[in-house]
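I wish you would study the pair of lines that follows with an eye to the fold:

===
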Amino acid sequence: MDKLYGSILVLLSAVCFGIMGILAKYAYASDVSIGTLLFFRFFIAALLFWSWILYKQIPYRQPLKQMITLFMMGTGGYALMAILLFTSYSLLPVSLAAMVMYMYPVFVVILTSLLYKHSIEISRLMAILFSLAGLYFILGTNFNQINILGIVCALGTAMVYALYIVQTEKIQNQLSPFLSSAYVTSFAAIALFLFSMVRQDFSLTISSVGWFAIFGIAFFSTFVSILTFAMGIERVGSSKAALLSIFEPVVTVMFSYFLFQDILGPMQKVGIILILVSAMLTHVSRRKIQPAKNLESSM
């Protein structure tokens, strides 16, 4: 029963993260700038994480070396990921941006193979080939109909997220995922506030729909998503949780189809299937070489 509850928690996390691109589209439609949206996403999420830490009385003091690592993860990791991801959301259909970004497991495989000298097994090689084939089918050959900057931003998100995951795995045995999330979202909020100041696009003149989208992204797609994923991992383990997280882009594609009528062609649907198969192969392969660890899921 406990494992079933854990699986439900992970699926809830996937749904919460999967709707982020949808909410971002509503924010953009209400003229909320990228800088404003991202700052409030992490500022509100940080307040919620720190409230949780104080409620649970989790010790929060950390040595300087750990703080430097968390600072780099918040500014060079989460903040940069958010800028790239939400830029791709503004330039591409949500479903397309989500699927290109979901190539990140392949980049994790490549990074771990390079950093830890792991040989690339057949399942990993197949995952890479499936992923590249999926990207080819999604993009097609007529690049005039594809926003190249949007694709570059989505791929950049996947690469930065892969680096973030590798770094996160190094510190998970030393830190509570809630504590690391609190610090990372706090540092990301500071970096993104400066980012919005440089862009001169920070504004508090936001409609009710815009605020609804902002609070939805901060609460559901950041705080609840990370919280339920961490609670689910405690019950089902990181390997099963990673496999269940494959439903994230599926949720995004489904919602974007019903709400925005994002219509994908037959070849793009084949590409989506190939990328999902690639992600499954990647997670199964990682399960063979890694002990269960607490991983953070959501960006």
